[in-house]
User: Fold this.
Amino acid sequence: MQLGIFTIGDVTQDPTTGKTPTENERIKATVAIARKAEEVGMDVFAMGQHHNPPFVAPANPPILMAHLAAQTEKIQLGTATTLITTTDPVRIAEDYSYVQHLADGRVDLTLGRGNTGPVYPWFGKDIRQGIPLAVENYQLLYRLWREQSVNYSGRFRTPLQGFTATPRPLDDVPPFVWHGSIRSPEIPEQAAFYGDGFFHNNIFWNKEHTERMVDFYRQRYEYYGHGSYDQAIVGLGGQVFMAKNSQDAMRTFRPYFDNAPVYGHGPSLEDFTEQTPLTVGSPQQVIERTLSFRGYAGDYQRQLFLVDHAGLPLKTVLEQMDILGEEVVPVLRKEFDAARPAHVPEAPTHESLVARHAAGKDPIPGGGPDSQAAKDRAQQAEAAQRDHENAK
Assistant:
């Protein structure tokens, strides 16, 4: 189990002091949080991608990833979102390969569509084409990382003739890709088709919805022959806020929740924590709640926590991370690893991907010859041939 931190880089006023950090302060705070994540023993630090206020998450995450790679040694650097819809796949292929080299392989990315309408036309795109953009752009990205010379023609960008993305991925193995979605079944279908990971940022959703999305992905992962239902690669997100007892945690966090850009002015804190994975309470409550996710998501590989949202000051965020590192993460790691069956894989790393590639076990998009998908295609072809013969 990989346990880590993700940030969306919001610049939000602290409702208890009225102070809003400057962009410079927020960016420097993000770096401090990433370094703290490694210090307290986290496995992953992931950052969002935004092009609009009130966010200062990097518009090009590899810039921050490269900076963090030079200041850390072990932690995996990922994205909470890489906008596959409004970012040119050629740019993604080259930028992430480059930072993969700088970080010695400690890089992965979560592809997402983005749900901020005005961003799409800024980059000449139509939000109504979000799903087709995500599907077509990833088809190209997948090829750019695996083929030396790419000929390409599609709906959404200019054609390519004999194009080679440079640099090539480290050890000829691309960064691992998670496909992120909170509501669209086309995205877990895409993740399953390629044998990639599926990340469900269930921060806003009830467990029943998350269970349906993860279940669908697992079914399709098995259908395409990449492994059994419970071997699919799943990640979840959530937010926590802790104090020694739940009363103090609720009292301290309430003004931040009530005024948060994404939480505030809706359901109460009590209702939201009951209905979604948001956990506000003691460290033990966070442990118990997080372990319960396994009950509806199965044995999953990555759990990321949001800790710096809604105007929380850096001092408080770092204190929260100390609690996570000292009291929560060691217990979660031990319990999750003890419960995971031997046949369920751990989260992919560069080293495990290199070993898989060397053994010739890379996933086959659309399913290998022994997959149910291949059998269904053969049956369809036979039926079509019979129909053709009968029509003569």
Remarks:
- The first strand starts at residue 2 and ends at 7.
- The longest helix spans residues 314-339.
- The chain has 14 helices and twelve strands.
